[in-house]
Specification:
2 domains; 7 helices; 202 residues; 5 strands; transmembrane; Rossmann fold; five-stranded parallel β-sheet; alpha/beta; binds NADP nicotinamide-adenine-dinucleotide phosphate; SDR_family_member_7; transmembrane helix
Length: 202
């Protein structure tokens, strides 16, 4: 069998299995596999996880899930009120007061990143995982967007992530291990209409 035929066959079989499994799984195959056969969430017990954009949505959900599994949490966003609410949910989920550090800030102010990073290390003595989740999307007819709007979007979705990740990578290299996570978007894979700037920065 020719190599290309074989590759084509594998792709067809993959999608056939995918379609057949759709009625019984509620996510893609990779996630389903990880859920059932991947590493267990208990492995997060005692790990220090810093989640940016933790005051709502995906970041909030992640914080509560991590709390259920015993992680120590650093929660960042601008809204102190919402961070306090998320902290309350984490405490209900099993965290203790000592397990949670609220680090409110505007993440686009990269001049504060070193100081914030130092606070995390001073408080918990280590960082295991940085989750770059703070971000937003934007809808507009691309050619009408003011440059300032593009700049704001890139400062949040790109440059703040690069700045904080760079500090984390230097620290992870020093201690010999660590993980970087970034919440991305399908817009980075398939261009979405009226999301021109977001398609670039995803
Ligand atoms: N939900 C989706 O369908 C989807 C799809 C593709 C990609 N994403 C990406 O997934 C991530 C989370 O999205 P989400 O749906 O959970 O949105 P969300 O509920 O609006 O959460 C965004 C988070 O980012 C924080 N944030 C925004 N600007 C910030 C700033 N300047 N400094 C610090 N924190 C800031 C917000 O908190 P404050 O306002 O309190 O600062 C909030 O906690 C984003 O990066 C988003 O682009 C989401």
């Amino acid at each position: 069998m020719e190599l290309l035929t074989l590759i084509g066959l594998i792709v067809v079989v993959y999608f056939a299995v995918y379609v057949l499994l759709l009625p019984i799984i509620d996510c893609d195959l990779g996630l389903w596999y990880a859920d059932n056969f991947g590493r267990r969430l208990d492995e997060f017990k005692g790990k220090v996880v810093w989640i940016t954009g933790a005051s709502s949505g995906i970041g909030e959900f992640l914080a509560v899930e991590m709390a259920k599994h015993g992680a120590k949490l650093v929660l960042t966003a601008r809204s102190v009120l919402n961070l306090e609410r998320v902290k309350g949910r984490c405490l209900e989920a099993g965290s203790t007061i000592e397990d949670i550090l609220l680090l409110p800030c505007d993440i686009t102010d990269t001049t504060k990143h070193e100081e914030m990073f130092a606070r995390v290390i001073t408080h918990f003595g280590k960082l295991n995982i940085l989750v770059n989740n703070a971000g937003r999307s934007q809808r507009a007819v691309w050619e009408t967007i003011e440059p300032e709007v593009d700049r704001d979007l890139f400062n949040l979705n790109v440059f703040s992530v690069v700045s904080l990740s760079r500090l984390a990578v230097k620290y992870f290299q020093k201690v010999g291990k660590g993980h970087l996570v970034a919440t991305s978007s399908i817009a980075g894979v398939i261009g979405a209409p009226f999301s021109g700037s977001q398609n670039f920065d995803s």
